[in-house]
């Protein structure tokens, strides 16, 4: 198992980002911070967060445009209200860095290796029937039930990765 694959983004990313304000149809400069799975913004650098989003697979990208350097996504806030944020970055480098960090934060937490049975077929793991992790949901499955590979770009993978049968149905 490649250990680094389930380590989520732990480092901090912060800088000014233009955030679209639907009421006025204008972009407003905010100080954005991504720390682990918490994305938040404040009016200026180092002020208390005005609003925040929890980044996991429930955060769904609705627009990705490297040409206009914009990234839009939808998520549910703490009160279960659907929010849509649209961000515009200052450079291609910034856009790429934020896109990648958000995608890594969307990755599922992997189930522990102490799991004894495949969640798909309920058979015990053995020396010959080995454990694998579905990169899309993080559950532990056997090889027979994770034969498919998908390019999960919104989870920051740049090559096709192992996906369980349940996720294959969702993604197909
Ligand atoms: Zn199985
Ligand atoms: Zn899965």
Automatic annotation (TrEMBL):
Record's signal peptide: none
Read off the Gene3D superfamilies from this record: Pleckstrin-homology domain (PH domain)/Phosphotyrosine-binding domain (PTB) (2.30.29.30), Zinc/RING finger domain, C3HC4 (zinc finger) (3.30.40.10)
Instruction: Identify the CDD domains for this entry.
Output: FYVE_scVPS27p_like (cd15760)
Gene Ontology MF, one:
zinc ion binding
InterPro entries listed in its UniProt record? FYVE-type_Zinc_Finger, PH-like_dom_sf, Znf_FYVE, Znf_FYVE-rel, Znf_FYVE_PHD, Znf_RING/FYVE/PHD
> Know the name of this protein?
FYVE-type domain-containing protein
**Annotated Pfam families:** FYVE (PF01363)
What positions does the domain FYVE-type occupy? 112-172
Q: What is the organism lineage in this UniProt record?
A: Eukaryota, Sar, Alveolata, Ciliophora, Postciliodesmatophora
Keywords (A to Z) from UniProt? Metal-binding, Zinc, Zinc-finger
- Organism for this UniProt entry: Stentor coeruleus
């Amino acid at each position: 198992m490649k250990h680094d694959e389930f380590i989520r983004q732990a480092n901090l990313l912060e800088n000014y980002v233009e955030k679209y304000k639907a009421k006025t149809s204008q972009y407003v400069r905010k100080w954005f911070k991504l720390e682990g799975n918490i994305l938040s913004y404040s009016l200026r650098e180092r002020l208390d967060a005005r609003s925040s989003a929890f980044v996991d697979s429930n955060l769904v990208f609705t627009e990705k445009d490297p040409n206009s350097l914009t990234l839009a996504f939808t998520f549910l806030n703490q009160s279960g209200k659907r929010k849509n944020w649209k961000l515009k970055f200052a450079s291609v480098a910034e856009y790429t860095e934020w896109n990648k960090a958000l995608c890594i934060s969307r990755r599922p937490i992997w189930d522990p290796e102490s799991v004894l049975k495949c969640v798909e077929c309920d058979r015990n793991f053995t020396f010959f029937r080995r454990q694998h992790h579905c990169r899309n949901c993080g559950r532990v499955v056997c090889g027979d039930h994770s034969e498919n590979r998908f390019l999960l770009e919104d989870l920051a993978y740049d090559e096709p990765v192992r996906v369980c049968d349940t996720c294959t149905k969702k993604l197909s």
